[in-house]
Write a structure and sequence with these properties.
The complex is a heterodimer. The model of chain A has no long low-confidence stretch (mean pLDDT 97). In chain A, the strands form 5 sheets. In chain A, strands 1, 2, 3, 4, 5, 6, 7 and 8 form an 8-stranded mixed sheet that branches. In chain A, strands 10-17-18-20-24 form a 5-stranded mixed β-barrel. A 4-stranded antiparallel sheet of chain A has the order 13-12-11-16. Chain A is α+β, with helices and mostly antiparallel strands. Chain A has 2 domains: 227 residues, PmbA/TldD fold (2-Layer Sandwich); 247 residues, no CATH class. Chain A is 21% helix and 39% strand. Chain B folds into 2 domains: 189 residues, 2-Layer Sandwich (PmbA/TldD fold); 234 residues, no CATH class. Chain B has 10 helices and 17 strands. Chain B has a 6-stranded antiparallel sheet. In chain B, a hairpin with a 2-residue loop joins strand 13 and strand 14. In chain B, helix 4 runs parallel beside helix 5. Chain B is globular. The N terminus of chain B is likely disordered. The chains are: A alpha+beta, B alpha+beta. At the A-B interface, strand 1, strand 2, strand 3, helix 2 and helix 3 of A face strand 1, strand 2, strand 3, helix 2 and helix 4 of B.
Chain lengths: 486, 463
């Protein structure tokens, strides 16, 4: 539990802000511990631990936002930043067109923490390093491999939110992840294979038990062999074809072409100058056919163990599961207390998160999931006469309205007459969001549905990084452009 | 909760950061350098600043923060390394950070590549501090936004930000190394959003007073007006004129992919095996120069090595990459002062990249183009093939058809999929002025406009 001193600082910040003229104020204390270990070619490249703590004060004055945060935790400093937040809000007032109105939210007093079997911060460094060195040795055992990278990351985030409406929410979120990467450097190309996923591996809101479940060493030789073999593989052909994507690619497709375009702050133009806006409009609710009837997407911040799970968002709104796209029809955005009323919604659906004490919360994906279908990977491949099976994201890009995308994966195999054929190198595919999701004719079932964390989602100014997740099963898409060349 | 840090030198100013000063850092460093270790490096930052964002022609996010961080790298048994970081300079907290670093070092296998801690050095003079920028008030940033929006007609909306920051960085080594620098920075980005077009302009400087905010707004608005009712356009290979922001995207990705010594030594860099060879057009010269008068860099890197100017590509010929202490030791040469904070697994990177200007104005580049495209900036670029330097990304905020030597009309945005080194081999002209631009995933670089033939666009959009 946070100590009395922290609670007193947060309460004091709210009192000072209210006295200075704020109609609403919240104070969010956050202390985060982190640990990161990197091994390359059997050598420990870096082991680091970090701790960061501070408090941020967010206020509304005459309908305008102000925010100030400080790492200098003391009564005098907290009073200063509370007053500064009010002054900042007042400076915004002359250039305010529409006063902010917050959606109602019953204030809660709550404590929530990630269920953890084995606290990753109590597992010895010796043990962690030993596992990464063993995995590195397995990667290096494959002839032709140039670079073997293994890594682990852990975070423990302890936060306390107090609002002038009376909410008092304390949370402890623990996140763990690890991964291995095999790189084969050739004269012209570098080929890469990752396990369990790219972006430093597989991340979850779990303890060290998650790391123990990954079997990094058992998969090392296989991915190293694949990285080497890719240099001998045929280039992915160009043209229109059927593609089957596994969850290590489909998760990022959901992220970029469903998650981001449904963030209501983007839709309302609040991120226009930086990350962009969205092709989806408020009046598309219930009307826009976002994809085929195979496509049902949920936002679920309650999903046990998923990297984007929490008890309450940074506005004190409880986590929940909601349907965003239902059998292809768009239903709902990701919202906040500020944005929900703008489109006539009564309540926020609880997706506001900040990546630290020194920044304001933004609408961030928690776990955005493509719900499973009824097919299977075996059936999808078995019923495909000619196509390509792609796995593990390597490259991603999408336009500022989230329509035109192009993704590359680490590896692919041709599908010929219902069977997986030869390995293909440099696979990529491109398309338009609605066309692509409309081309989905099959999704794998529940037993093939996997949740992968995306630990590097960027948004906002100053830039913030969110740790989010996506559950998907394998999916099949028809008439997709593949093999885009530069 | 974490231990507390209060203070600085004297009372804390209402708006601006009070500098902690080298002496305050030295107090913390004396603890951080500690005993029970063979060596230690302390790297500390203190930063404060405000960022005022606007969208839909109103201020919608208005923030300020003050951060402190201290990292301690402890060395035991000669080359066992541990790094720990905290957010407090109070003695107990620094002691805890040192203890954490030591405990990590003791269980970490020896690193034979460890180059040791840099010794004392003399640093180049860098005038990178501006009192007025450090003391900028929220009202002054809001006033800047107001002056930007004054340039907007009623049918065009504005979005963007004005940011001012003040920073201190301090490095101490058990070798006697001491480095301390202060810096300020001011940035402004303006996007103009019309019914079916948009425009963009940005500027990053050391001083807020150096930003010409109305001029940036006027430029963004002009682009949005010029781009109204954009025409459909087929993807394909076009002669393009990339404005400085678009040129910077190519440079930033090349920096990430291959201008650092780690990728170079691993053979992953497009520069590997090419030193002394012509790899780009002779009109292209690229360097990293943290201490140029108009650069935003520091007089030293994060290992305490003096910053230096490194020519990467000279008149199209590959000359060198940038080095830190670890890669320099491996290659038997000296660091060029491009080390990142420990623990660094990326190797050195050029953070203050610049491309030399040429002798053509933007107008001349356009006038010399019978048929082509003018690109304001790129969006969400990413790597398709790292060693081949194939990138993909979108155009954004002002893409125009050039017809008969004139900017004719706006066109809808296009996706490029293009080899960046090849693009810089196809340069037909280089602009005579440079601008500092930021890239979505990176820092800033200074570049001119360039005219490039056969630039490949792989698909189109509906906006």
């Amino acid at each position: 539990m946070v100590d009395d001193e922290v609670q007193a600082l947060a309460e004091r910040a709210i009192d000072v802000a209210r006295s200075a003229g704020a109609s609403y104020a919240d104070a969010r204390y956050l202390a985060e511990d982190s640990e990161s270990i990197d091994v390359e070619n059997g050598r420990v490249e870096g082991v680091s631990r970090g701790s960061d703590a501070g408090i941020g004060v967010r206020v509304l004055v005459d309908g305008a936002w102000g925010f100030a945060g400080t790492a200098l935790l003391g009564k005098q400093e907290v009073e200063r930043v509370a007053n500064l937040a009010v002054e900042i809000a007042r400076s915004s007032r002359p250039l305010l067109r529409t006063a902010v109105r917050l959606a109602d939210e019953p204030p809660v007093e709550a404590f929530w923490e990630t269920p953890v079997d084995e606290d990753p911060f109590t597992v010895s460094l010796d043990e962690k390093i030993d596992l990464l060195l063993k995995a590195s040795a397995e990667l290096q055992s494959v002839q032709g491999l140039t670079i073997a990278q293994t890594s682990m990351d852990f975070w423990r985030r302890h936060s306390f939110l107090a609002t002038s409406e009376g909410a008092r929410v304390e949370q402890v979120v623990v996140q763990s992840g690890a991964g291995i990467v095999a790189l084969a450097v050739g004269d012209r190309e570098v080929q890469q294979r990752s396990f369990p996923n790219s972006f430093r591996g597989h991340f979850a809101c779990k303890g060290y038990e998650h790391i123990r479940s990954l079997d990094l060493t058992g998969n090392a030789a296989r991915i190293a062999e694949e990285a080497v073999a890719l240099h001998r593989a045929r280039e992915c052909p160009s043209g229109l074809t059927t593609i089957v994507l596994d969850p290590t690619q489909l998760c990022l497709q959901v992220h970029e072409s469903v998650g981001h375009p449904l963030e209501l702050d983007r839709v309302l133009g609040m991120e226009a100058a930086y990350a962009g806006t969205s092709f989806v409009r408020p009046d598309d609710r219930g009307k826009l056919h976002y994809g085929s009837d195979q496509i049902t997407v949920t936002c679920d911040s309650t999903l046990p163990g998923a990297l984007g799970s929490y008890g309450y968002d940074d506005e004190g709104v409880p986590s929940r599961r909601e349907v965003l796209i239902e059998n292809g029809v768009f239903r709902r955005f990701l919202s906040s207390r500020e944005t929900a009323p703008v489109i006539g919604e009564a309540r926020s659906n609880g997706t506001m998160r900040a990546d630290g004490w020194g920044v304001i919360p933004l609408i961030r994906m928690p776990n955005i999931n493509l719900e499973p279908g009824t097919s299977s990977l075996e059936e999808m491949i078995g019923t495909t006469d000619d196509g390509i099976y792609m796995t593990t994201n390597l490259s991603w890009s999408i336009d500022d309205k989230r329509t035109n995308f192009q993704f590359g994966t680490e590896i692919a195999w041709e599908i010929k007459k219902g069977k997986l054929g030869k390995m293909l190198r440099n696979p990529n595919y491109a398309g338009k969001t609605v066309d692509f999701w409309s081309s989905c004719d099959a999704l794998g079932g529940k037993d093939e549905w996997k949740v992968y964390g995306t630990p590097n989602c960027g948004k906002g100014q100053p830039p913030q990084v969110a740790r989010v997740a996506h559950g998907t099963s394998p999916g099949r898409f028809r008439n997709v452009q593949v093999g885009v060349r530069g | 909760m974490a231990s507390k840090v209060v203070g600085g030198n004297g009372p804390i100013d209402e708006h601006s950061m009070s500098l902690l000063g080298a002496d305050r850092f030295e107090e913390a460093a004396r603890i951080g350098l500690g005993d029970g270790v063979d060596g230690a490096l302390v790297l500390a930052f203190h930063s404060a600043g405000g960022l005022t964002r606007f969208a839909s022609s109103q201020i919608h996010q208005n923030t300020w923060r003050e951060t402190v961080s201290i990292a301690v790298m402890a060395v035991v048994d000669g080359n066992r390394i541990g790094v720990a970081a905290g957010s407090s300079l109070e003695p107990d907290a620094v002691r805890a950070t040192l203890d954490a670093a030591k405990s990590i070092a003791r269980v970490t296998p020896a690193n034979p590549d460890f180059p040791g801690i840099a010794g004392p050095a003399t640093y180049p003079d860098a005038k990178v501090w501006d009192d007025a920028t450090a003391a900028t008030t929220p009202a002054e940033r809001a006033d800047g936004v107001g002056r930007a929006l004054d340039e907007f007609p009623a049918n065009i909306e504005g979005a963007g930000f004005i940011e001012t920051t003040a920073n201190e960085v301090f490095i101490a080594g058990s070798t006697g190394l001491r480095a301390y620098a202060t810096s300020t920075q001011a940035g402004c980005s303006v996007m103009a959003i019309a019914e079916n077009s948009s425009g963009f302009a940005e500027s990053v400087e050391r001083k807020l007073s150096s930003l010409d905010v109305p001029a940036l707004a006027e430029r963004a608005v002009r682009k949005a007006e010029l781009g109204r009712d954009p025409a459909d356009i087929e993807p394909g290979a076009y002669t393009v004129i990339l404005e400085p922001a678009a040129t910077s995207t190519l440079l930033q990705f090349l920096a990430y992919l291959g201008f650092g010594a780690k990728a170079f030594l691993e053979g992953r860099s497009f520069m590997a095996g090419k030193i002394g060879q012509k790899i780009m057009d002779e009109k292209v010269s690229i360097m990293d120069d943290p201490i140029a008068p108009d650069a935003l860099g520091l007089p030293f890197d994060f290992e305490g090595t003096p910053s230096s100017r490194v020519v990467l590509v000279d008149s199209g010929v590959a000359r060198d990459v940038v080095w830190d202490r670890t890669t320099a030791k491996k290659a038997g040469r000296e660091s060029t002062g491009h080390g990142l904070p420990p623990p660094n697994t990326m190797g050195p990177l050029p953070l203050n990249l610049r491309m030399e200007p040429g002798d053509r104005s933007l107008e001349q580049l356009v006038a010399s183009t019978e048929r082509g495209l003018l690109v304001t900036r790129f969006h969400y670029a990413n790597v398709v093939s790292e060693k081949e330097t194939v990138l993909t990304g979108m155009t954004r905020d002002g893409t125009f058809a050039i017809e008969d030597g004139k900017v004719a009309h706006g066109v809808k945005n296009l996706r490029f999929t293009q080899n960046a080194v090849e693009a810089l081999s196809n340069v037909e002209g280089v602009g005579d002025t440079t601008e500092t631009s930021t890239e979505l995933f990176f820092g800033g670089s200074r570049a001119p406009a360039i005219k490039v033939r056969d630039f490949k666009f792989s698909s189109s959009t509906t906006h």
